Structures are given as structure tokens and as C-alpha cells.
Amino acid sequence: MNLLLEFKVIDVPSQLIKLTYDIPSHYSKHICAFSRPFLMTSPPVDILYQQKAVNGYMINNITFFVRQSASFSTAKAEAEMAFYCMLTGSVLMNINKPLHQGQYTLINDNSIPLLLDLEPGIYELHQYGYTKTHLINLAKATYPRTIFIQLHQAINEVKITRIHSSLTEIWLETKLKEILILFLDDHISPKNEEHLDIILNFIHNNLDKDISISQLTKMYYISESTLRRSFIRKFGTSFSQYLQKTRLEKGEDLLAHTNNPVHEIALQVGYRSAAAFAHAFKQHFGYTPTIIRERSAIVN
């Protein structure tokens, strides 16, 4: 079996270590969905491995079933930076700090072996590995992109916020990290923006129809959470608020530039009655559709 063992058991002879794809049923609840698991067995410990390489990135989910106290060390890794997330149990690593259940740590020199001492029990460690090349590629120059609202707000905070204390540099460093994350998030998700442009075009051409976010996610194969975030990031508003604003602004334009009756305009922009349209219109603009008609009549 040509498998990569992230951890080796210290002081256990290699002839006592076995690898198998046959996973005992009592370990099945610890299996993840992203890859085929394999099991390393030895007298003091069984280790359930799940590994997945994605364009050079590495994902590991490792569960230790420790029967006797044992020590472990990591093999030399290709990744130069790794996130270790402790999902079950707590360990003391050679980084001199305990990693408790529910915590993660970033190790930016993954060439140094990681040492673990484990007592009997179950421990689950989730790991993501990155190389320097990956990090450089993430930050490569790209085509110009719109300064979305969260980025705009962060930039404005840097421009106008005055902090008269020793915390100025700490605050600025925090904001710079936030802006870097926003840049990278926008850079590595270009398809989301393309999806959004297509969805916006559909919305503007179908205002007379019922439109729901669940309908759009099925039509354009995008998750609901991603689509919701896209609206907030680009417009600073939720999908439902954007849809209502678009309906009412279109209704205002039709009131000003056509002679269509109000009940017809209401249907054209997705309201089932003139009363529902007028109520929403008054709440949004602060005046009724009749005012628009009167103003248009004066101008004409």
C-alpha cells in the first residue's frame, strides 16, 4: 500500500505496524466523507487516516485510538505551513503549548517534526497543509475587481479612524490583516461574482414573477449561503431587501414614464395587488405612488 503516514509511533518496530483498508465497524462513526479511510494498527494504538490532496493542498483527518501511553512524531512534510485543529481530546505538543479540544494552531515551519505524547483515549486531529507556492499563487495579480462594500468600509476605517494611544500600530496591523483576508477571499472566488451578474440579470428581467433565493440556487448551482454572502458583500444588503428595492425602483420608473394603471404596474413588478404595492412603496420612499403620478403630470 503506497500510503502517506502523517505520524509514526516512536519505539514501535515496523514489523508490528500493519496497514489496512478494512475498517472495524466500531470505528465507522469516525469516518469522514471526503476520502477513503485506511487504518494503521499497532500494539499501543490504532490510527485512522483520511487524506485528500487537492491541487497540491493537503487535508488530513487523523483519529488516534490509544490503548497504551505512546509517543508520536510527524514525518517530513511537503507543506511549509499547516493548520492543526483539535476536534477531540487535548494534547501537549513540542511547541510547548497545549492544544485543547476546540482549538487550532498554525505551524509555519512544517519541516520541524511535531511530537505528541498521548495517554489512553481517543484523539481526533484535523489538518490542512499549504506550501509557499500556494500562498504566493493566492496573492498573484489579477484583473481589476469591484471594491465591494466590506472592503470599502475597511479602507474607510483605515483612512479616518484616529487612535491616540499606544494601540495604534496594533490596530493598524489588525486592519491590514482584515483587508488581506478580504482581498484573498475576493480573489479566490471569482466564479461567485460571475454567478451574481447572471442572477442579477435574471432578477431584473423577471420582476413580475415570484423569485426566491432557493429557486435561484437550484437554477445556477450555487449554495444559498454563498449567494446570501455575495449580496451582502456587493450591496451591503440582504437578498430580500435587494429584491424589494429593485421591484419598487422599477415601479417608480414605470409610474413616472408610463400611463399604465397602478394595479398593472404592481403586477409588473411582482405585487399581487395595488394596495400591497402602495403600502410597500410608501414604506420605502416615504410617499405614495399617487405623488409620482402628480409630479409627472406637472412636468409634462
TrEMBL record:
UniProt entry tagged with the keyword Transcription regulation: yes
Top-level taxon of the source organism: Bacteria
Domain HTH araC/xylS-type: 197-295
Residues making up the signal peptide according to the UniProt record: none
Full protein name: Helix-turn-helix domain-containing protein
Keywords annotated in UniProt: DNA-binding, Transcription, Transcription regulation
GO molecular function (one): DNA-binding transcription factor activity
Xref: Pfam families: HTH_18 (PF12833)
Keyword Thylakoid: no
